[in-house]
Write a structure and sequence with these properties.
Elements: E1 5-11, H1 19-32, E2 37-43, H2 55-58, E3 62-63, E4 69-70, H3 73-81, E5 90-92, H4 93-105, H5 116-130, E6 139-144, H6 154-167, E7 172-179, E8 182-183, E9 188-189, H7 192-203, E10 210-215, H8 221-231, E11 238-242, H9 250-257, H10 259-266, H11 278-288, E12 292-300, H12 310-323, E13 325-333, H13 342-345, E14 351-354, H14 363-375, E15 380-383, H15 385-397, E16 404-406, E17 415-420, E18 435-443, H16 448-453, E19 457-464, E20 466-468, H17 473-478, E21 481-486, E22 493-498, E23 504-507, H18 522-539
Parallel strand pairs: 1-6, 1-7, 2-5, 2-6, 7-10, 10-11, 12-13, 12-14, 14-15, 15-23, 16-17
Antiparallel strand pairs: 3-4, 8-9, 17-20, 18-19, 18-21, 21-22, 22-23
Bound molecules: glutamine (GLN).
Length: 540
């Protein structure tokens, strides 16, 4: 079995330098050269997973097929690589400690004092090699969350140091991402923060092999030479990462800078083939040369935060390119919507997406917006909570059940059209207890969903506790809101749609998690197409 090689990506100077995008871009380039690459992320926080973190803390929570609630960078990995990630691709300090403490309780350490070194670092090292040991990958890229010098990152950096020593540097390299800031008063790019951050890494016994320098301006040859000399790397290993128009340009920019070449050389891997980036470039061409421009409203309660709906925004980019349309996503805070102002607030939109979410804040605004687009034949797409709100709106305004609600919002509602599944009723722990991960769904022949997916059975990812209450399904259906996707095991409704509307689809699952550059999600593609048709009709 060929041995996997390891690339670790650390960050210095500042957070938010884009380690996730650099890691994903490198993996993309290696994959385009025919290598099997995967990416994993190690997060130094103590939460067992980000599932319990609210979006203001950590952005979107990404869900994998195997039901792991993970960091949003895993979404980038899947979108860039078009391969699925799993629980093994995201590890937190909380999970490491949980596992070590469980082993200690089982007596597995045979009476030894359990310590950060070696017990925590050994656990980290085991997890770092877990995917590599499957034999499925040539290269495993590991992103270490946080910034070097942070107290909580130390065990990870120490684990990397030990692995490098055990495997040899040609099997295990470190890419360090830093910032080269521009000081306008001095009209100069400054290398000192990079030098200091490399020095901090060296204090932990790691000499970075490659430096990726985030910058707003081109790095001159002399700056590159200075960084190389003071930071102990070859000049060609100083890689400029200049601000890009779109994250999807980054693989091409990194290739131009030679990142993939220097990685292969440092890992002693052959560099005889040019990467095949033709499909990627074709996507970028369509993305950058749209034939039309549409405006889609995104209603949610975290819209002020870019990262909260990351996968939805990216899915729109993929679907926009597929349709050769620029999708302008207009964020609308659900708390700013009411029955009286929908016409004004939603003016000029060619479609509306009501986002996933938890809790009752802003739900009446979502319901008002759904009523408006339903009655005005504007394309509507509801995801998870968005689908649940569409059912409530229909029950209230078409079935005449004025107080219909979800028991999440009103436990005593006389018409619980959305309610808790029995197996959720006694759940007390919050972490990892929702209906999570991939579930099968059978589509009704002749439905809008069936026409879009072009298949009878699908599998999509879930993350919720509440469900459409089947005792209302008959009435909803008789009155025009049909369940056209059913979970074959549980009989739960996963998709609802309205025949008599140009495009009105609500899904209990999260299609956005599965959209990638090379395989845009069919529902997003169809929704964007419907919005585009609506926009064209308006113009005509
Ligand atoms: N709060 C709803 C539920 O738990 C919807 C969750 C979601 O939108 N992801 O069922």
């Amino acid at each position: 079995m060929p041995k996997a090689k390891y690339v670790f990506v650390t960050g210095g100077v500042s957070s938010s330098l884009g380690k996730g995008i650099i890691s994903a871009s490198l993996a993309n380039l290696l994959q385009a050269r025919g290598l099997k690459a995967t990416i994993q992320k190690f997060d130094p926080y103590i939460n067992v997973d980000p599932g319990t973190l609210n979006p203001y803390e950590h952005g979107e929570c990404f869900v994998t097929d195997d039901g792991a609630e993970t960091d949003l960078d895993l979404g980038h990995y899947e979108r860039f690589l078009n391969v699925r990630t799993s629980q093994a691709n995201n590890v937190t300090t909380g999970r490491i400690y949980q596992s070590v403490i469980q082993k200690e309780r089982r007596g597995e350490f045979l009476g030894k004092t359990v310590q950060v070194i070696p017990h925590i670092t050994n656990e980290i090292k085991d997890r770092m090699q877990q995917l590599g040991k499957t034999g499925d990958y040539d290269v495993v890229i590991t992103e270490i969350g946080g910034t070097v010098g942070d107290i909580e990152s130390l065990p990870y950096i120490e684990a990397v140091r030990q692995l490098r020593w055990e495997m040899g540097r040609e099997n295990c390299i470190v890419i360090h991402l830093t910032l080269v800031p521009y000081l306008s008063a001095a009209a100069e790019l400054k290398t000192k923060p990079t030098q200091h951050s490399v020095k901090t890494l060296m204090e932990s016994g790691i000499n970075a092999d490659i430096l990726v320098c985030r910058t707003e301006y081109e790095l001159s040859e002399s700056i590159r030479a200075k960084i190389a000399l003071f930071c102990n790397v070859k000049p060609e290993a100083v890689i400029q990462s200049i601000d890009a128009k779109t994250i999807y340009d980054v693989p091409l920019l990194m290739h131009k800078e030679g990142l993939d070449r220097v990685v292969l050389e440092t890992l002693a891997l052959p560099d005889n083939l040019e990467p095949d980036l033709s499909r990627w470039k074709a996507f970028l061409f369509r993305h950058k040369n749209p034939k039309n421009h549409i405006r889609v409203g995104l209603v949610g309660k975290y819209v002020e935060l870019q990262d909260s709906y990351k996968s939805i925004l990216e899915a729109f980019i993929h679907a926009g390119a597929a349709n050769e349309v620029k999708v302008e996503v207009v964020s609308i805070h659900s708390e700013q919507l009411s029955v009286d102002n929908c016409e004004v607030q939603l003016k000029g939109l060619h479609g509306l997406l009501v986002a996933p979410g938890f809790g009752s804040r802003g739900i009446e605004g979502k319901i008002s917006a759904i009523k408006y687009v339903r009655e005005n034949n504007i394309p509507f797409f509801g995801i998870c909570l968005g689908m649940q709100m569409a059912v409530i709106e229909y029950a209230r305004n078409v079935l005449g059940l004025a107080f219909a609600n979800s028991t999440e919002m009103d436990e005593d509602t006389p018409h619980p059209v959305i309610s808790l599944m029995d197996e959720q009723k006694n759940v007390e722990n919050k972490g990892g207890t929702m209906r999570l991960g991939a579930w099968d769904c059978s589509l009704t022949a002749g439905s809008c969903a069936h026409g879009i997916y072009k298949t009878d059975d699908i599998s999509e990812r879930h993350r919720h506790r509440y469900e459409l209450n089947n005792s209302y399904l008959g009435d909803l259906s008789k009155n025009g809101l049909k369940a056209t996707g059913i979970n074959p095991k549980t009989g739960l409704a996963e998709i609802v749609e309205i025949d008599a509307h140009p495009w009105f689809v609500g899904v209990q699952y999260h299609p956005e998690y599965k959209s990638t550059v090379l395989e845009p999600h069919p529902l997003f593609t169809a929704f964007v197409e419907a919005c585009n048709n609506y926009a064209n009709k308006k113009i005509n």
